[in-house]
Design brief:
This is CBS domain-containing protein. The chain is an alpha/beta fold and about 140 residues long. The chain has a single domain, classed as CBS-domain. About 40% of the residues lie in helices and about 20% in strands. Strands 1-7-6-5 form a 4-stranded mixed β-sheet. Strands 2-3-4 form a 3-stranded mixed β-sheet. A hairpin with a 5-residue loop joins β6 and β7. α5 packs parallel to α7. It starts with a helix and ends with a helix.
Amino acid sequence: MTKAADIMHPGAQWIPATENLERAAQLMRDLDVGALPISDSQERLCGILTDRDVVVGCVSQGRDPARMTAGDLAKGTPRWISSDADVSEVLREMEDHRIRRLPVIDKNKRLVGMISEADLARHLSEQQISEFVEKVYAT
């Protein structure tokens, strides 16, 4: 049985909710990622920041990314999956919530990785990918 830990990209990195968006953008560039999980002061997941969030939620509104924080853009309840969850649970979570990136948390509630569409494409069958795309991108 394939687990979330088997298909995730390991070594994901948090960004504190208090960190400014300028630093977040630099970190995304340096890590070559399009999203960062946001942590609260207790290192618990409190959101996910995407490169699109920075552009749409800050830059396009004429706001200063050096003055806005990751926490300013953290909205809603973040979704995550346990590292020992079956891949069918991963797909269900991503499909049900129409999300493209999913943080992976270990039994100690620590971030251990991220699952993206690219990870799914590398590890799943064409049929599974087809069903995922149909459910996530359906209008």
